[in-house]
Amino acid sequence: MVASHWYSYIVQLGDYVVVLQMYDKLLEKHIALAHGCRNRLEKELGSKYGGITREAISIFISLCEPCQLKRKQPKKGLVVKPILSNTMNSRCQVDLIDMQTQPDGDFKFIFVYQDHLTKFVQLRALKTKTAKEVAEKLYEIFMTFGAPHILQS
C-alpha cells in the first residue's frame, strides 16, 4: 500500500504501523536518545521505519516539553567567575599588537604588558615578534617591577 501523505502509514520491517503508533515510536526513540536532536532521531528511525519525515520529527520535537525547556535556558558565557587580583603584580597580562601595515621605521609590533589589578600598562616597540626579542622586553619589565605570580598571555 502506498501512502499518499506522511501521516497515513509507516512501514515497520515489512508490517504496517498505523498512524496512532507513529507518536509512540517517535516518543520511544526520542527518550532512548535522551531527547536527541532531529538528525539523530531521523537517522535512528529512518533505518527501521519508512514514512516518518523530517517534518514529522520536527513537529514532534517542537511539542516535546523537556526539549523546549532545555532550549529556553540562557547560554552560559565564556567567563563564569571574574578573575580577581588582590595585590599589584599578582597577575599580569602580555600581548602583541601587530602594526605591520603601519610600521614606525623598523618597528612593526607593540609589546603590551598590563597589571591586572591596577591596569598599569607598559609598552615596548618590537622589530620582530621572535621569542628572543619578546623575552628581552619581558626581562626588562621584570627587572623594573619584579615578576608576577601569574603571567597570562
Structure write-up:
The protein is α+β, with helices and mostly antiparallel strands. The chain has helices at residues 19-32, 38-48, 54-62, 65-72, 131-145; strands at 9-12, 15-18, 49-50, 91-98, 109-115, 121-126, 150-152. The protein starts with 8 loop residues before the first strand and ends with a strand. Strand 5 (109-115) and strand 6 (121-126) form a beta hairpin. Mean pLDDT is 80; it is low at 1-17. 37% of the residues lie in helices and 22% in strands. It has 2 domains: 9-72, no CATH class; 91-152, Ribonuclease H-like superfamily/Ribonuclease H (Nucleotidyltransferase, domain 5, 2-Layer Sandwich), CATH 3.30.420.10. The protein is built from 5 helices and 7 strands. The chain is elongated. The strands form 2 sheets. A 4-stranded mixed sheet has the order 6-5-4-7, with helices on one face.
Task: Give the key terms.
4-stranded mixed beta sheet; disordered N terminus; 153 residues; 2 domains; alpha+beta; Nucleotidyltransferase, domain 5
